[in-house]
Design goal:
OB fold (Dihydrolipoamide Acetyltransferase, E2P); alpha/beta; five-stranded mixed barrel; single chain
Length: about 350
Amino acid sequence: MSAEFIVRLIGMMVLAVGGVSLGVYLSDLANDEPYLWASVFGLVGALMGLIVTPFLTTRPIRAIRAHMTQVSVRSMLSGTLGLIIGLIIAALIASPLSLLPAPFGQLLPLVGAVVLSYLGVTIFVMRQNDVFNVLGSRLSTKSSEGEDGEQAQRNILLDTSVIIDGRIADIAHTGFIFGTMLVPSFVLNELQHIADSPDGLRRQRGRRGLDILNRLQKDTRITFRITDMDVEGVRAVDDKLVILARQLRSPILTNDFNLNRVAELQGVIVLNINELANAVKAVFLPGETLDVHVIQEGKEAGQGVGYLDDGTMVVVEGGKAKINNIISVMVTKVLQTAAGRMIFARPTSAQEHSYDSE
């Protein structure tokens, strides 16, 4: 039995009793038989209670709850602080305003309280970032650890793709990510849907994502939580994530190329794992030498291809004959592509090392 059904029954009974009482009162004024009046007004009251009661009770409460789930904790705290300061200022000016002649002495203190409360909430919510930056800097000067206040308050939204990728757990464990990592409930639902997929590969990816979330939640050095904040009227997960990021003024952590572009067009900061991986790869300049294990043929004739430990592809000219050997090569050109960094090299005169499969 739902709460709305119970509220309808209560409203029906209350308004039915009120209708009967009103019918009896009107019948006395009309000097008529009270039974007909009481029956008619009682039925009308019961019908009105059955229909109107949810719109006066459960529906507004549900709308308020839905709206509050979209409001960040920072906005709520800023609004509360602005309300308190507005009421304090209103209380200070209420005493001199009350000395004015009637009716101003009675009306202006109330009007001043309403206006100043509204201004306080509006101003503090609009300038919430500045307020928290000031408070964070004050707290950071008193903290023995010397953490930056703005970084400590920052939230980072995680996308489904970056959770499934798995590298976020290792990056967060190193301590390079500051702030709280947030996983909205709609992202968690999408991850669960992927884990329940009939496709074996897709199901495996979803389960790995759930394992990564479990690992993040158990790591005491990582600030991580799942939030119930949602975006009403939007079905696509990526669209919800971008809108929520704009509302919270938070960056999105992802490796989805399309989401990256859409978020940047809407002014949302994006932290891309793939860009980070490319940025931390070792830098080699033309003329430097390195050892590489040639494992396959290249696209051009005579080329061999190998990979460094960080996944960087090395194309070796004349390396086809050196497959399954670790050889010393000299870098001739470094090419940055959308897929990552490629290194072109040619063998040196250094001694070759046979590859031992064991």
